[in-house]
Amino acid sequence: MSTHKNALDSSGPRLAQLEQRIEQLETCYKITSLINSELNLANLLDTIMNVAKKVMNADACSLLLIDDETDELVFQIALSKVGEEIKSMTRLKMGEGIAGTVAETGESLLIEDAYQHPKFNPGYDKKTGFQTGSILCSPLKAKGKTIGVCQVIHGKSQGRVFQSSDLQLFLLLCDSAALAIHNARMHMVLMENQRMEKDMEFAQSVQESFLPTSTPQHANFTFAALTHAAQVVGGDYYDFIPFENEMLGIVLGDVSGKGVPAALQMARLMSDFRYISQVDSEPAKVLTQVNNTLCERSYRGMFTTAVFCLLDMKNKKLCIANGGHLSLILKRNNSIQEIGSASGTPLGILPNMQYSQEEHTLKSGDQILIVTDGVTEPKNKQQEEFGIDRLKDMFVKHTGSPEEFLPNLENSIKGFIGDAPQFDDLTSLAFRAL
Known about the structure:
It is elongated, with a radius of gyration of 36 Å. The strands form 3 sheets. Strands 3-2-1-6-5-4 form a 6-stranded antiparallel sheet, sandwiched between helices. The protein is built from 11 helices and 16 strands. The longest helix has 47 residues, at 164-210. With 434 residues, the chain is of the alpha+beta class. The protein has helices spanning 2-36, 41-55, 83-88, 97-105, 123-128, 164-210, 259-279, 283-297, 373-376, 388-397, 402-417; strands at 60-67, 72-79, 91-93, 109-111, 132-142, 145-155, 221-228, 236-242, 247-255, 304-312, 317-323, 328-332, 335-339, 358-361, 367-371, 426-433. Helix 1 (2-36) packs antiparallel against helix 2. It has 2 domains: 11-186, GAF domain (Beta-Lactamase, 2-Layer Sandwich), CATH 3.30.450.40; 201-433, Phosphatase 2c, domain 1 (4-Layer Sandwich). Strand 1 (60-67) and strand 2 (72-79) form a beta hairpin.
């Protein structure tokens, strides 16, 4: 009878422990669902810490994430009476202290008495007045990579010591926390990418607004132009600037570089060309003044090649000034010649440069083609350039209008490079005398 009574008496504590463990596991399951539903990283980290402190019945806890740039552990959040003081001790090197050791080895630690562990740094306790007792510290691993460390602490004054069963529960919690942190970070990256895409789409629409929305209409000429940036925005530009007496300014250029910096420079340049050419539209003087303006702005490493033409549409006369750009191509009677050669340096390099100009009289049927080096320099997988000769051959064989030729040219370039990426902006402008 007494033996049976003793068995019942001894089973009481074990039953209580089992019930407590079941309750902890149920709580852990519920909390895991809660953690995985939170995509805001700051809120998530706060939730993880509160959950860890509650489930593990800890006096203090902290969470550190690895800074990939410095390979250091950074305190994200610390919960205890001295949590903010601990968090202010911002960084740990890999292998430094208990948390640094766990991050470096990727192995969890159960420490019954922190002061008996060789990696424990009592400096935190001295600074905060907290007395560390037992510690559970686990790496946070996501997709096989350690991204941080989580630790819970019993104070020495409480006399409590973490057990191996506590460690198993803590590891379950840390696995869920690590996955949730990884998902929240991926969500942040996705949101940032979507924001950047919207910003770039807006930048693209702004840049397109600087370009002509239509080509000039005149009884003696027909015009066409196409541009395609290597990135969302680019540094190629062209413009048609109408003047009195049936005169038309034509500008096409290529800013060094690509992307947003080149696009910003391009927008400023188009404004410069329009403003300066209204004062004096003589091509050589326009390039000289635009060059001086660019040099005064002193954009380090930024320059532009440019062609500025003044077309007398009534008398079919074309005046050309070239600042370091590709020559224009004239097609006449099924023959090709280059005109308007690059006699001057690119704009924005040397101030007070004097540019020259040349004049040509056009005949009915003559066609002029102006392109950026994004047309001639694309390479296929064999590293062969599209080249000026291939461009000339296409141009001389084409019997249609400029409006038909430019799309055909762009398609030919795309077919030539195949799967190779487009490294430079591609811009072409053509016109024909009727």
